[in-house]
Specification:
By secondary structure, this protein is mostly helical. About 45% of the residues lie in helices and about 10% in strands. The protein has nine helices and nine strands.
Length: about 240
Amino acid sequence: MSENNKENQDDVINEEEEDSHQDEEPKEAEESTTKAKFTFKCTRCDACCLSRGPIPITFYDLELWAKNGVIANFLPYLDIYNKPDGSIDLIMKPLPPKPKEGEESKRDPFSPVPIEELLEEKCPLYNKEKKECLVYQNRPLSCRTYPLEYDGKNFTIVDVDCPGLNEEGMTKEELKEMRDTAKRMFYELTRMRITIPVLNQLITQKVMIDLMRQNMEAMSKMSDEDRAKLDEIFKKDQEVPEE
């Protein structure tokens, strides 16, 4: 391996450990460092697009799309995902697979497909026939940093089977850009997960208050006869049937 290729490789695990080796002799650093180095070059296999599942969306993505005037292209696929751990994500939701023969009549057309059934589905904006991303210049942060992620302390690889891993040719500039993107993704996703529950609660509260106000206004405009009929209906609903 050439000296240039050695310089282009980097430690995925911890930036601090990387800095601690810079002052050591090359031979000593080579012997004392046993952790894997991170190099990546996308091979355009598109496997991540074909089975990506729900893609988390951030304010950065929304702002980018609004700035470029393409947000309408994404709106049909955006959804709120209430995660099992109680947190809420804004996601780009894959289209459900076509039902198998005989299953068409069993599925409620108005019932949403659970997220858990879409974990292996393709991105809704990936053209499988042409093998291309339809929104590549405006792709989400999560796609730009894949398969590298940052958890606030360390960098991790979320897809160890990605064929682009360990491919040579990654420059220091490309590595830095990918790391910076992973860090931004962590920051933006954290910001989104803090903000969405607050907005959700405020909007729900506002909707409920508006509905109550509308009901009160409708009641005030009802005639005495209509109000008496409505009271009679409520009384019947509250009656306990005799056994």
